[in-house]
């Protein structure tokens, strides 16, 4: 079994590194051994570890851990891109969050990453026509992680939600690739209008803490939304916006705001 696992992980450098970090973590803090073995070292792949964590965190008296584990395992088998996207999300957190210095941390400790991975399983259920089960996953993710993402929303890869407290993403929201946001962000509607009513966020956008982006509007790629802003209209690409209501206050300041995570506006930008 050990030789088989070594062969598998050698083909997956992200999973190999997570396992190596897990072994080191157990050596450093033996009291974490049970958690780390059950969550990481017991599994042959990242997908199996993610399914385990999904079931462990979301299980309740209403839905057992075993049933949730079977749901997650089925999702990863049916859609291999879920595992590929999870690796991109882990890399995004590691690259952009200065408090994250190991790939192991998002999997075990960071609720933003865990909430997004659970959402992705809920979204898969939604696309399979299993809306009630998808809504159950949404409810549990909101209860457990404080992150409320409708299962019909569409999220790209390389998503990083830092701190991830009080995040709300509506039903028809679309988020591109390599987007970063901080806590208390809302991508919401403006009333009771049905249909396509939520924001469309371009690739590489950085959304600051407490920002509210409301309505069926477009945020251009590689833009920055300042903390506490309320955005009610379209934003061109590569701009910085701030205020209530938000207005353009300068250029984005760099090619990839979501990666640089620079939230300070320089009037020379």
UniProtKB/TrEMBL annotation:
GO BP term, example: cysteine biosynthetic process from serine
Family: Belongs to the transferase hexapeptide repeat family.
This protein's record includes keyword Transferase: yes
Signal peptide: none
GO MF, one annotated term: serine O-acetyltransferase activity
Chain segments annotated as coiled-coil in the UniProt record: none
EC numbers: 2.3.1.30
Gene3D superfamilies per record: Hexapeptide repeat proteins (2.160.10.10), serine acetyltransferase, domain 1 (1.10.3130.10)
Gene Ontology CC entries for this record: cytoplasm
A Pfam family it matches: Hexapep
Domain Serine acetyltransferase N-terminal: 14-118
Organism name: Pseudorhodobacter turbinis
Listed pathway(s): Amino-acid biosynthesis; L-cysteine biosynthesis; L-cysteine from L-serine: step 1/2
Statement: the UniProt record of this protein carries the keyword Calcium: no
Cited InterPro entries: Hexapep (IPR001451), Hexapep_transf_CS (IPR018357), LbH_SAT (IPR045304), Ser_AcTrfase_N (IPR010493), Ser_AcTrfase_N_sf (IPR042122), Ser_O-AcTrfase (IPR005881), Serine_acetyltransferase (IPR053376), Trimer_LpxA-like_sf (IPR011004)
Enzyme class name: transferase
Reactions mediated catalytically: L-serine + acetyl-CoA = O-acetyl-L-serine + CoA
Protein name: Serine acetyltransferase
Keywords noted in UniProt: Acyltransferase, Amino-acid biosynthesis, Repeat, Transferase
